[in-house]
Design a protein that fits this description.
62% helix, 2 domains, 143 residues, single chain, mainly alpha
């Protein structure tokens, strides 16, 4: 047995998984190519972004080294990328459903021609989402 008992090791893995999620958020907000819809203004200079990327990688290295020193096996993957893609694509389609003219009418009367324009925009988005290379599974396909 290592320096820590099973419960303590699980606590370490859970904390490190959360820290990694926060590091991912830092990368998404500061380092990666921004999305127009992210809600984050990218106000960091290129040198600051490079420094952040390097420091984030350094934190992850330190985390891996700490696990090794403490004799804790790294957290295992909980799901597959294909499942994440499929699930996100499904939820994106559900969000598109909320843009249907009949749904938007609950926010107020649509201007003439708006229903057709909205429906066309929603359908174009639906086609784009469905073009993502997603492995569609049958119900109960698992993660």
């Amino acid at each position: 047995m290592g320096l820590l008992n099973d419960s303590q090791q699980r606590a370490f893995r859970a904390a490190f998984r959360r820290i990694d999620e926060l590091l991912q958020e830092i990368e998404d907000s500061a380092v990666r190519t921004p999305s127009r819809f992210a809600g984050v203004t990218r106000d960091l200079e290129p040198a600051e972004r490079r420094l952040l990327a390097g420091r984030v990688a350094g934190v992850r290295r330190q985390m891996a080294e700490a696990l090794e020193r403490l004799g804790i096996r790294p957290p295992s993957a909980e799901t597959t990328a294909s499942w994440v893609v499929e699930t996100a694509a499904t939820f994106a389609e559900l969000a598109i459903d909320e843009l249907a003219p009949e749904r938007l009418r609950s926010y107020g009367k649509l201007e003439p021609g708006a229903a057709e324009a909205v429906a066309a925009a929603a359908e174009a988005l639906r086609v784009a989402i469905r073009s993502l290379p997603v492995r569609r599974r049958s119900a109960g396909g698992g993660r």
